[in-house]
Task: structure prediction
Amino acid sequence: MFFNLTSGVPSSSPPREFELGYLITFKESPTRAENILAAVQSRGVGQVVRPVDHGLAPIVAVHTREYVEYLKTAYEKWIDIGGNPDGIFPDCAPVREFENRRKWGEDKKKGDGSQTKSKFPYAKDGGDLGRPGYFCFDMTGVIAEGTYKAAYDAAQVALTGADILMNEAERGVFALCRPPGHHAHKDLCAIAVRHLIDTHRVGRVAILDIDYHHGNGTQELFYEANNPLYVSLHAAVSYPYYWGSEDETGHSTGEGFNVNVPLKLGTQDEEYLDALKGVIDGAIRAFKPDALVVSLGVDTFKDDPIGGFFLTTECYTDIGRAIASVGVPTLFVMEGGYNVGKIGENVTNVLLGFDGK
Result:
């Protein structure tokens, strides 16, 4: 039986995002979640419940408090300094050496161990005008009015999903989160995984990321850890561009616990299912997980406006069946998928396939 977690569909959404030099209509619309919820209810996937508020503690166990505090007031401060009401579009970002890590890292100390002080209010995050870029990866993840509440509520959905999975011994739980989060450093899936390990004392947790895009946020958080195992099937050399290669296998105690499976543009049903079954029968079974968390993206669909794979709606049922073969309690956390007309059917096909229907 499935429990489906939703906090209601956040209505806030930035009107535009910046892509390929153009301001375009923002793709991650509330309609996505509305259509998924409607499909879950109409197809009888399971009971729909609302989440429990866990507060900030499990969130700051993953994110820095500095980042959380920034999100709380980011939009209001942006407006106060004359920013575009459509959302936060940073003027600059501290990439590579431009972040001035020599100043703010260990090298900021003088030889005698003291720190050089300036008579001007320089800050690591750049202050009010620099802060938007400091906490930003790109200009498709736009912060707008209501972003903090939507992200906070989404985290509570994922956390409650983890609770129900373990406390009520459910086989499968679906957390309908909006906005998606597996690119965030760190993300919704990671918050749920950390909660499973630290609060519920689950022995071994595997993460299976089947979004079209690599989950760089999840990978970064657990890259030096041997629990959880992180496995990602994603498009090769696509967004987020700098992560996702097969040679990224983990570091230190995490070596061998990060498995990337990049797939070529145009991947279709059979080759995708072969790759999925390969990692399930290989890395995931070898890990012997006690629980599985799935970053569920359906932007692998053939008519998705962002993705470049060609999976059919029917294939998602087979994906659900393959995931069920792992045979452990499974939490599905919603990620991408931008064909709003088919997203509900594609998501519910995964869930029904997992449930043996």
User: Anything to note?
Assistant: Residues 96-104, 106-114 have pLDDT under 50 and may be disordered. The first strand starts at residue 2 and ends at 5.
